[in-house]
TrEMBL record:
MF GO annotations: ATP binding
Keywords: ATP-binding, Cell membrane, Membrane, Molybdenum, Nucleotide-binding, Translocase, Transport
Protein's name according to its UniProt entry: ATP-binding cassette domain-containing protein
Chain segments annotated as coiled-coil in the UniProt record: none
Entry keyword Glycoprotein: no
């Protein structure tokens, strides 16, 4: 069932006006700075907030219609929520926490336990079944919280900055787990995040929210590759080259890029090479020496950025960028239309799974 929502909220000097649609099995990421309206949007979708005007439908079910004074409360919407903090019941075991949703929905004790065991296994947390939340690490608790959200078989899954509270070691593993689990979801998912990598790895489509308005939307890869707003360009300050995984590398047409595989990948799986423009060197000729990734590009633009110049390039449907000094631009006689090599060390490249199938990410 598809989610369709039109929402207007006015609070003092803040106003949110958003319209969005999410197809069955699709993951929609919502990015925006603090105060943009992301939490307000999520609260309206979950039923915790009644908008001043709007309509929310999931399939044929109307959850909200302000004109007809229809408002389905949260507990009747079938919404699953995974937030920054796991919010597990402290005096229940991990298994009991996960079984809570099925039990609340009317399942018997044995059936709820089987559902909980299955979902703990799905999130690689079956060995944690007997532990209470105080005995779990942050990453372990978030896995249990994900199992709890999914065990209730929600018709809409809401992810509210699910990786924000995890440390640098736990976040990649949890991101990879979410990628694997969401690939098999049949219901729509809305992900609110401040991390562009979450959108790259998890989301089929992306909306950018600024000052309560959606200013950009579309397939994640397209929005991040060619941002129209300054905020989007800033958060998309990473090069993103999509291709397919190939034995610790990324195949992009005739080009093979090597790097650090951030999360487990199967050969042939959609993936992306991610690296910073500052890590890219520009050469007129293909350099020799130590093994490095070399990408043939056509220069499409030069943008002064303080002490550096951002060199925009084009290769296929991708638009990678390099940050170089003004002296390098002069020495290389760079200009739009010139053909050069973008070179980046493998140590500077992270290879991530790429969500989205045909719609890209």
């Amino acid at each position: 069932m598809s989610l369709r929502a039109e929402i207007e909220v006015r609070r003092d000097d803040f106003a949110l006006s958003a319209e969005l649609a999410v197809r069955p099995g699709e993951v929609l990421a919502v990015l925006g700075p603090n105060g943009a309206g992301k939490s307000t949007l999520l609260s309206a979708l979950s039923g915790l907030l009644v908008p001043d005007r709007g309509r929310i439908e999931l399939g044929e079910r109307v959850w909200l219609d302000t004109e007809r004074r229809v408002h389905v409360p949260t507990h009747r919407r079938g919404v699953g929520l995974l937030a920054q903090n796991p919010l597990l019941f402290p005096y229940l075991s991990a298994l009991e926490n996960v079984a809570f949703g099925p039990r609340a929905a009317g399942a018997g004790k044995v059936a709820a336990r089987r559902t909980a065991e299955r979902w703990l296994s799905e999130v690689d947390a079956e060995t944690l079944a007997g532990r209470r939340p105080g005995q779990l690490s942050g990453g372990q608790a978030q896995r249990v919280a994900l199992a709890r959200a999914l065990a209730a078989d929600p018709e809409l899954l809401l992810l509210d900055e699910p990786l924000a509270a995890l440390d640098i070691d736990a976040a990649p593993a949890m991101r990879g787990l979410l990628h694997r689990v969401l690939q098999h979801q049949e219901h729509p998912t809305v992900l609110v995040t401040h991390d562009v990598l979450d959108a790259v790895v998890l989301a089929d489509r992306l909306v950018v929210l600024l000052d309560g308005r959606i200013v950009e939307q579309g397939p994640t890869r397209e929005v991040l590759a060619r941002p129209r707003e300054a905020f989007t360009a800033r958060i998309a300050g990473l090069n993103l080259l999509p291709g397919t995984a190939a034995a610790g590398a990324l195949a992009l047409g005739d080009i093979t890029l090597t790097g650090h595989v951030a999360e487990p990948l199967d050969e042939g799986e959609p993936a992306a090479a991610v690296f910073a423009p500052a890590a890219v060197a520009v050469h007129r000729e293909l350099p020799g020496g130590s093994p490095r990734n070399a990408i043939p590009v056509q220069v499409t633009g030069l943008e002064p950025r303080g002490d550096v110049v951002r060199v925009r390039g084009s290769v296929g449907d991708c638009a990678p960028a390099a940050d170089v000094t003004p002296a390098a631009v002069a020495d290389l006689a760079l200009a739009p239309g010139e053909r050069v090599w973008f070179v980046v060390k493998a140590a500077e490249v992270a290879i991530h799974p790429l969500s989205g199938g045909s719609s890209g990410a």
